Amino acid sequence: MLIPGVFVAVLLVLGGAVSYSYRIFPAVGAWSASTSSAFFGALGGVVSAGLVYGAWRGLVRPALQEGRGVKVVNALVVGLAGAVLGAVFCAALGFLLPPSVGVRIAQGAFLAGGALVGMGVGLSLPGAAWRPASAENAEASAPPKRPLGRGKVIDTSVIIDGRIGDLASTGFLEGEILIPEFVLAELQNVADSSDATRRRKGRRGLEILRSLMENDAINIRVVRRDYPTVPEVDRKLICLAREEDAVLVTTDYNLNRVAHVEGIGILNVNELANAVKPRFVPGESIDVEVIDRGAEINQGVGYLDDGTMIVVENGRRHIGRTIKATVKSTLQTEAGRMLFVEPANETPRWDR
Fold this sequence. Notes:
352 residues; 5-stranded parallel beta sheet; 6-stranded mixed beta sheet; 12 helices
């Protein structure tokens, strides 16, 4: 509240000083013209400060928070044009009418009204209202560039999944990869979690990001734009993808569905995995840490580093241990992948 208070105080003093200097208001009752001018000028300064601050909070600041820099520039340019037009009307009134309090008030109304109406019109424009001639000439003279594809906004789930590194390295993800700063903050919170599984996932995601950024062949940009008025990270991702005209890359099934409804382009890594060869084939041996009971009798459950669930048949007695297991089958759905294994070199109880 310090800055708004200082702003109101400055306009209060400025309004009172200007009105006192020009004796804009006549004497009122026991007040002389100087006293009434100072009082009503200061009051007008406070009202003007309130109008400007209200316009800032209601129009300009939300546009800045949502990253709509073009709209803010439009508001400033068109608002300046409106103020110039209002100044022309002020000069015309000064020539046509004799000096009086009413004429001065009308001149001030024309000037302020032209600026405010111009700002409103500028915020409502769909495109840029003004571009420098040098930029247009540079764009016209620049040689045509080969399109690099739309940018890709990646979320926390696809970073932890880990396959984004292989996709980017092989060139399947063309265009610029955008990493929002709020995704980095969420990933850091996961890496600092008190839960061992979540902490392992978060640290794995940070390692994958580090390897991506060290790869010079991958075009990565960290987007420091945030949306303080939007609490959910999924909604922030959708807002960023819409503003950047980018595609959202994720493994989150719910975010996938919401993005489709919002009309945002989506690349689901799990859907891609459905169309390619499975990561594990039957008969392959892997090391599994059995950490919990499964849904069925004698089943154990473990997880890969990327969060893939492993169902260990006849593995309940191995809870708390790391065993070597043989892959029996895999189940891939849009919500994720499940792996079914059995302890290696071990005869099931019912076959003994």
